[in-house]
Amino acid sequence: MKPTQTEQRLQKVIANAGVTSRRKAEELIKTGRVTVNGEIVRELGTKVDPKVKIEVDGVPIDKHQKTVTYAFYKPRGVISAVSDDKHRKVVTDYFADKDLRLYPIGRLDYDTSGLLLVTNDGELANLLMHPKFRIDKTYYAKVEGIPNAQALKKLREGVSIHGRKTAPAKVWIENRNQAKNTALVGLTIHEGMNHQVKLMLRDVGHSVMKLKREQVAFIDLSGLQPGEARRLSNSEVEHLLELARGQNKSR
């Protein structure tokens, strides 16, 4: 039978329903966990009308919890958590209107602002928080004093934090304020030790006054104000998953 114009690849229909990523949907199909109108389908590339009855593990795809990921501009003074025993504002307070159990991937310090990914996608969260995860994260730090060439060289080569040497970083001076003796320093790192950027800059003699994370991989804060979020597209999530898997395989 010739496919109709409304038919799409089965893995795409599952991914578009928000059940999981397209790659994961392919694995579900290959392992016999997907049925179409009650029949198990194992062949990748099978085309179906999105209106037919599709189930994963016996549950209709429209009944599965949707997986969503947001790019969130965390303001300063907000906890990267789902709750706080001191009753301070937490990241998930900004998603109270979503009927989903969301949580931040990783964390930003209470006094650090910037990009934080918020999701209910366990696969994505596990990959991005894996110790071997090596996707770049870019920060801007306002520091006391103006780092000289020697300090920048040391940061680029790696400094010692708690007895462990950091990986080489990309570091540059974004701007200098000679009158106030401050500088805005840009850093791109792929590690995620607690307070890493602050400790790196302190090691070379420059205390951080303000810190902001501008970018994670190819996701940035474009179009967002503090406290705002945007949902990542399916293609953006797929790209993040591919980057994470690729980096982990390369180790």
Automatic annotation (TrEMBL):
InterPro entries: PsdUridine_s_RsuA/RluB/E/F_cat, PsdUridine_synth_cat_dom_sf, PsdUridine_synth_RsuA/RluA, PsdUridine_synth_RsuA/RluB/E/F, PsdUridine_synth_RsuA/RluB_CS, RsuA_PseudoU_synthase, S4_RNA-bd, S4_RNA-bd_sf
Entries under Gene3D superfamilies matching the protein: Alpha-L RNA-binding motif, Pseudouridine synthase I, catalytic domain, N-terminal subdomain, RNA-binding S4 domain
Gene Ontology biological-process annotations: enzyme-directed rRNA pseudouridine synthesis
Known EC number: 5.4.99.-
Family the UniProt entry places it in: Belongs to the pseudouridine synthase RsuA family.
GO CC field: cytosol
Source domain of life: Bacteria
Domain RNA-binding S4: 8-65
Molecular function in Gene Ontology: RNA binding; rRNA pseudouridine synthase activity
Protein name: Pseudouridine synthase
Alphabetical list of NCBIfam families matching this protein: pseudouridine synthase
Pfam families in UniProt: PseudoU_synth_2 (PF00849), S4 (PF01479)
Signal sequence coordinates: none
Keywords: Isomerase, RNA-binding
